[in-house]
Amino acid sequence: MQEQIREISNYLANFFIEKGLDEDAAHFLNMLINIAVVFVLWYMIHYLTKTLLLKAFKRFTNKTKTTFDDFLVKSNFPRYVSNVLPLLLLILTIPVVFQDYPKLLKVFETLVDIYIIFLLVLIARSLLRTTTNYMKRHERYRDKPLESYTQILMIIFWSIGIIFTFSELTGKSVVGFLISLGAASAIILFIFKDTILGFIASIQVSVNDIVRIGDWITFSKYGADGFVTEITLATVRVQNWDNTYTTIPTYNLIADSFHNWRGMQESPGRRIKRSLFIKQNSIRYIDEKDIEKFQEFNLISSYIKERQLEINDYNTKLGINKKFLINGRHQTNLGVFRKYALSFLQSHPQINQEMTIMVRHLAPTTQGIPLEIYCFSKDKLWEFYEGITADIFDHLIAAIPFFDLQLFESPSGDDIIKALKSFKEE
């Protein structure tokens, strides 16, 4: 076919020469006409193939059930493919159009080669985006950093494309260009330092399963506290609880420490760990009247009876002097309240009874003795979790006066004024 085109082109040149034009002028005019004809043909073929291909793809996607072809259209795959036929026209016609001008022929052949390289990269990018978007629709891939994999592959494709482009422009072989590139590797490493670190971090994040899309993470250094919505080669995007977004460099997930709450999300319960601060001077031994009162409390009635019988047997066997409560063994109001709080948690319907439930003392502080409540709620959703926690502490705070205990609270201005007034009155 190329020979037929060449014959037509030569016919025009010979025709101009026969009409009396100078040979150089005839060849130059012939080249201009050929350029105009090729441009018109290229434009018509490009327009027709793009229009027909887009319509064909749309009809095809409307008839099929799969969504893969829909993503092909969204990623401009038909537009890129529609350039193939016009490109073939250029490959066939350019050697004929510039046959009398070798230097121009070399320039345009180089441009066509570069065009082919970039078109192949664009088609590959379109297929990668289509595959990524299609895989995101499947449940098993939603928490995977697919964007990172796509970006890594795109960097590889673009790097190959740029290497071949420079090889075309400089006239050097690809191997020779790579050798020259190796000499400048230190500069390249410095320029693309962040990209390289992000590339390494992205691989480590994926292989070690450090972070997934949908994980709740807390990264105080960057003020991030929310769900991971996107993982790319360079950054991880987090949607915070206030609906703002925080962008974290991917490498920092490897270099710095952060909290990933996935373990809590996957566990059967969410931890409740808070303390009540008991005033130390409100703690005392309980007497018979207290025992009678506490036996009326349903949650600890049987415990009080059994515990008191055990203590009485112990004191009787050792002949303890009962004149002073400090002698022998006796229950305290704090100990009874601790048992009450534990029984309350063990009977609470929203507490997971198969996980750790504990009420314990922590080391005394200047604010009193911390009585820590440690358990796990069945519901892990934030709003329900906070409601369960508030319900538990509402009850325990209201129950404390029944055990003749007091909570520590820093004195307010009104407390100081009342104390001064009472002091003056005395």
Automatic annotation (TrEMBL):
GO terms for molecular function: mechanosensitive monoatomic ion channel activity. Keywords: Membrane, Transmembrane, Transmembrane helix. The keyword Membrane applies. Pfam families: MS_channel_2nd (PF00924). It comes from the Bacteria. Its main location: membrane. Gene3D superfamilies: 2.30.30.60. GO terms for biological process: cellular response to osmotic stress. The chain crosses the membrane at residues 28-49, 80-98, 110-128, 149-167, 173-192. This is Miniconductance mechanosensitive channel.
